Amino acid sequence: MVKVTIWGSLQAATDGRGEVEVDAKTTRELLTQLSQIYPGLKPQIERGVSLAIDGEIYRDAWFTPIKPDSEVILMPYMQGG
Amino acid sequence: MALDDSNKRDFKIVGTRPLRPDGVDKVTGRALYGADLSAPGMLVGKILRSPHAHARIRSIDTSAARALDGVKAVVTAEDFDPVGDDFTQDILDNCLARGKALYDGHGVAAIAATSEKVARLALKLIVVDYEILPHVTDVDAAMRPDAPVVLSGRAQENVPAGLSENVTSYFEFGHGDLEAGFAKADKIIERSFKTAATHQGYIEPHACLATMAADGRAELWCCTQGPYMVRDVCAAIMGLDSSQMRVTSSEIGGGFGGKTTVFIEPVALALSHKSGRPVKIVMSREEVFRATGPTVSSSTDVKIGMTADGRITAGQAHLRYQGGAFPCGTVEFGAQSAFAPYDLDAVRTLGWNVLTNRPKEAAYRAPGAPMAIYAVESVVDELCQILSLDPLDVRMKNAAKKGTLSSYGPTFNEIGLMATLEAAKAHPHYSAPLGPNQGRGLSCGFWFNFGGNTCVSLNVNTDGTVGVTEGNPDIGGSRASIGMMAAEELGIAYDKIRTIVADTSSLGHNDVTDGSRVTFSVGLATIDAARGAIREMCGRAARIWGIDADAVVWKDGAAMPSGANAGEFPPMTLAEIAASSHSTGGPIAGHHEGTADGAGVSFGVHLVDVETDMETGAVKVLRYSIFQDAGKAVHPSYVEGQMQGGAVQGIGWALNEEYIYGEDGRLQNAGFLDYRVPVASDLPMIEPVILEIPNPGHPYGVRGVGETPIVPPLAAISNAVSRSAGVRLAELPMSPPKVLKAIKAAKA
Predict the structure, then answer these.
(1) Single pTM value for the model
(2) Which of A64, B197, B317, B498 allows an S-S link to B294, with CB 3.0 to 4.6 Å?
(3) CA-to-CA distance for B210 and B638, rounded, in angstroms?
(4) Are the Cβ atoms of B514 and A80 closer than 8 angstroms?
């Protein structure tokens, strides 16, 4: 199981929890699990999210491996100028 | 790709300052910008724009315009089919208004005519019947429940109830117990700040030349930061396959984020399709101001607690950003960035994106971060003043470092903030004496950076030269830095390499040139492509020598046996291998297609001295120093240019630049005479100090540098003004009338 930190304004979709656990070994599995277990997260995940895994930010990388003890943070989809 | 075991690598080309490859073209006028291409039979496209901030369009009568001799096509929003997704539909609706004009300058109809004169005359013959609606341009006013609604039904599911429909999204970040944190503070300050919308101010207005034939094939030449984005957006709008839409990016006269979307290209394509002739549209400067994206304007409340010895105990910020007439996604970056330079036990940021009757916001260098960090760094500075603490020492005491739980969630890996603070402290600037009415300010800055999807093709020519093809327009010197990394990896001279930017049919997808991503990710792709070519060249040499490929290594631009056991052969240079390539297996090339990760976040510190004229309120920048971690500066002159350019744009934001709206919701200063950007005579030479702390996510340690430099100037200047004039302003820009008013109020 991987612990995922959810940003504050999405926590209404996770029963107020800032950290949830899902069974996932890749970013794609993780996002799929989050959408299934917490349907309220699905609209935001479909609009786009980034993931910070052990301090590195990933934007489009379905198959990035996630270790059980990885620090995983759900973040808004990264953009820049 | 991780950092090579090359912390101590002896770079031969990376880190030097060769002449820029676009220099001669640009100083001689040979460079081709968006407006420079013409085609036989080409028509002139012009767009009629709304004079109203908010108005329902009852009808558009184009009959008189269409009847004018020389007019070949007229289009309105009715000529476009609806697009399937909100993102693309908003882009289209921003090009030409559908049902309602949402801001002063919103496109309403467009003409293609045989000459500029006919096109202008035809625009005057279009009759638009408007029903003027109440408008709102201020972010706080737009959030009120009784505010005029710009667009209905666009609020995301997590927007709290009770706000106007103009509030489209809401974000919250942070950790820790705020109440407990504030309870530990010896001093708490709460302040509210406002920043004006500012334009990216690129020299080159938007321009494009479009052809779309009856067979459904289209060609587009335009100035853009993202030709693949333009292709995909325009293909979706025009109902074309991407393969039938070829986009060629011109030389670009600045972008800074403002050319990461489209404003005119679908209109030109539709006019071309209707007329059967090429159509060129070139925006005027007035159109650029009225109808292309400035950045957001903001309203922010900050509360920070600090102990008497300078430890920040808690920080909180509420940020409200207006992004114009369509939903934007900017406040989330401000809310994540606001406290990023600090190691805090308790921090919370809340952000709201809001619709107003203004142009659709476009990205601007580190979008959302400058105004957030301005507010936080202003309060930190005020606390330092009240508690009689050295502002640099306080930053160092609270600085984020490796292992810090960042204010936006992740734990930081290796970061360079402390190194930049130490460099600032040690620099002579920090201890230089100041004169009367002079003050010194500083601020930290931060940006995320990212990598993204990238393709590079590298071709070895038979004469021993190399062509590198990338897909990202060169907005900051990437052709030089990419060529240098290719030369470094291949071990050949930089002038043996030419780097070009491909059109969208010649290379696979590349993400937009943004996010400070290109030198990092295209460089990474180029190094990988070069390594692929090297593997092939080592294989060719091995076959010529009759030894195993594994027994050949690449060194100093040549293949050579890996050791005595491999046999004794003289090094075979790239030029020698290339010359025989048609006899040894054919052309030699390397390529890379992938998603680059590991960009690594970026920090910087700016230090500025200003002098305030107490009689006029005018602020003069006397000295400005920048300290930034560049990872590895591939071409230091370009890195310095990025640092200086970002600072100058930030100085303009702090002191002069603003979108000024009248009571009627119309923009009052749509030109460079009234919208004043800093010019060389306004500024001292800005001293950039590059720190090189290798990024572990890049083979050479490269880190993006283009966006962070615009983040600190707003607060650094404001903090300097407060110490120079003895008054602290909470609104940008700090133009002379505002500064003078604050000085007089303080005296009264």
Answers:
(1) 0.96
(2) B197
(3) 33
(4) yes
